[in-house]
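Example record used in the benchmark description.
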Amino acid sequence: MPEHLAVDANEHPIIETPSPKPLHIRFARQVSNFLSPITISIPGVLLVAFYRAQNLASALFYACLTLFFLSLGPMLYIIIGVRLGKFSDMGISRRRERIGPFLFSFASVLAGLIVLILFNAPKNLQTLLIITALSCIVMMVITLWWKISIHASSIAGTTTFLTALYGVIMLPAFLLVVLVSWSRVVLERHTVAQVVAGALLGITLTSAILFIRGV
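Model output (structure tokens):
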């Protein structure tokens, strides 16, 4: 008998309504979904593309081109994988399932970088894809042994990049790094160590590449 069914004294089935999740759990789930890597990539790429852009139409074109390889391709790969039963969920919660998405994302981002170079796209967008490609490699290797947080790394790296461009006005955005990290721990997707490591990796790797590229 399903868990949500019970039987009364007269052996009539009684449907038990599942108790609602606590408010902080529901809030954490909304935070985790709303500030997922794919979601934050949209405003992140747009802000990078529009930074000191001379031609807004051209900036929008390059932003869309970047998002196609950075987010749309990998997202479709995961959606298809979930539908085919290869992945447990859209968040790829199981560590052993993450290697394929990492490899596909790396290949997609690398292809996008080549296209941006051929189109002579803005340096900042090329740098963004370089950071993402290197992050894919590093996190894939770590994932072989340990489930480092992609959510924390992604939002920390994005915030670091935008702070380098726009200055101290973006510093309050680092509070979102804390919020996302909290949500992943509350949802038991990661430990505190895993979200801290993810955030530090995102900040360190992004800062290093920005320095090397002179951004």
